[in-house]
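Just curious. Protein, please.
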Amino acid sequence: MRKTYVIDTNVLIQSPDAIEHFEDNQVIIPLVVIEELDGLKNAEGEKGANARFAIRLLDKYRQKGDLTVGIDFEQGGNLRVEKNFIDVELPPDLPDSKMDNRILKVCKGLSVKEEKVILVTKDILLRIKAQILGIQTEDYTTEQVPSEYSQYTGRCEAYVDETAFKEFKKSGIESQLVYQVDSHGNRLDVKLTTNEFIILKADESNKKTQLGRFDGEKIVPLNHKKSRPYGVKPRNVGQYFLQEALLEDAKTAPLVIVKGMAGTAKTFY
């Protein structure tokens, strides 16, 4: 079933090409969103840049025909600017002076003619108001950063048998020897990225751990674990890994990206 998506301004500020990501469905831009983009086009930083990008993209489609009638996308679906439904009545507590409520008017008006109207907005409060009015809503997630657990962290934990664990400090170990375990106790292979750090555990004793780095071929011990630059000593695993990355030469680690919550010594290092 073809859907009609009404796009809020904040979606275009997050992802200025969002109008092209709704497959073969109908995309509606309320006129009030055009007004808001106009007010944001001179804003500093990313917000202003994205507003200008969205405006240029709308202008590209304007040159193909009348946006108030509708312009077809190459991939299917179409784009339309909606200027009607100013006479749609909302509850007295939702005054016309607020731009969000004007978007709700468009959604209410379209829902009379369209079978499935969905408001797409990043604004949680607008989604709540829409629900009160019986309007279906969705968050826009296409451009969101993956959730924390799915992001690359630069390090992982892995097990290795006791013999290889004992030999690790001498010459490192082959990456094929390490493994992880799922919630059911099944053994899983580990896919490592060059310069990814590893907390290595002996599989016969979880209390035995060593720190290593995958150099692209083998898992090797840290080169700078005992270093004390400016007299600074790492106090946890993350700081040992950070120190190692910063002290490696530029050929080995041409770019170091540091991520961590407040108070983990990012700025200090």
